[in-house]
Amino acid sequence: MTSPSQPVTAVDAVADQAGLLRQLEGQENFPVALRLLPRQLRADLRAVYDIARTIDDLGDEAPGDRLALLDDFEADLRRAWTTTEPRLPVVQRLVPVVQAHDLSIDPFLRLVAANRLDQRQSSYPTWNDLRHYCTLSADPVGRIVLAVTDSLTIQRVELSDDVCTALQVLEHCQDVAEDRRHGRIYLPLEDLAEFDVTEIDLDLTHTPASVRRLVGHEVHRARGLLASGPVLVHSLRGSARVAVAGFVAGGLATADALRRADYDVLARDIVPRKRDILRHAIRLLAGRS
Q1: What is d(CA 16, CA 23) in angstroms, rounded to the nearest whole number?
Q2: Smaller CB count within 10 Å for the chain: N or C?
């Protein structure tokens, strides 16, 4: 916590909120397979998750000047790579993880950059534009996971980037209505035009057939990128294999859930079933894609 002499800022408030959410959620946001990991590795991954969650909350929910808040958080984050102790507990918990696995700061700075971009840009004209956004918002997470599991290689990074972009696109498909309420559209505008979808259509409380077709198209794209998942999993061993299988399984189960709901993303919340995550994880770990 901040010392009595320091004023409580929005950064402190959001960081404290992330800590509370961490306690309340337990392992709910981690795929089922990750519960099989050793305690220390789970703790390391949770510390990374808390950082990513705090950055997202600062970019999405924090009151006030979010760009300034992100700047303040980045300044504290950089202290995890210096001899100066970070001020925020969420960053303090990251320090031993950085030291134990010799983590690079670059993926974390990319996550901050993605949230800065969210303050300036609310939509993406093309698929390539969206994929570039994912190089900031999603791909760094996979690279961090590979580093924390001591399995980072150039070949695996390429496969991981595909998987993480797919996971991000699937999340965007789940959250079309929520993103729209925040004034954002994470479906390529060129695809809206191709499927005869207007921005106003995304404000409806029911999902028109045109929007369903659009979302189905994006899920199909994501499912294609997830084809890199089994290759990545099969290249890994031990805890790294289990961890990555869990994330890939979560993506596959999300695609299943969206398809099962006939892409009805405006009228209902679409959540993957835990048994589907477990089923996909088992198949991946057994070498059956």
Answers
A1: 11
A2: N
Closest of 171, 68, 67 to residue 119, by C-alpha: 67
CA distance linking residue 49 with residue 245, whole number of Å: 17
Question: For residue 252, what are its two tokens?
Answer: 């596959």
Q: Name, in order, each residue with C-beta under 8 angstroms of 93's C-beta and a sequence gap of 6 or more.
A: 47, 50
Q: Can you give the length of the chain in residues?
A: 289
Q: Return the closest-CA partner of residue 272 out of 241, 246, 250.
A: 250
Mind listing the pLDDT tens digit for each residue in 268-289? 999 999 999 999 999 999 986 6
Query: Looking at residue 111, what is its pLDDT?
Result: 97
What gap in Å lies between CA 275 and CA 250, rounded to an integer?
A: 10
CA distance linking residue 110 with residue 213, whole number of Å? 32
- How far apart are alpha carbons 62 and 57 in whole angstroms? 6
Amino acid letter for position 264: D
SS3 state of residue 205 = coil
Query: Considering the entire predicted model, what is its pTM?
Result: 0.88
Rounded to an integer, what distance in angstroms lies between the CA atom of residue 116 and that of residue 71?
9
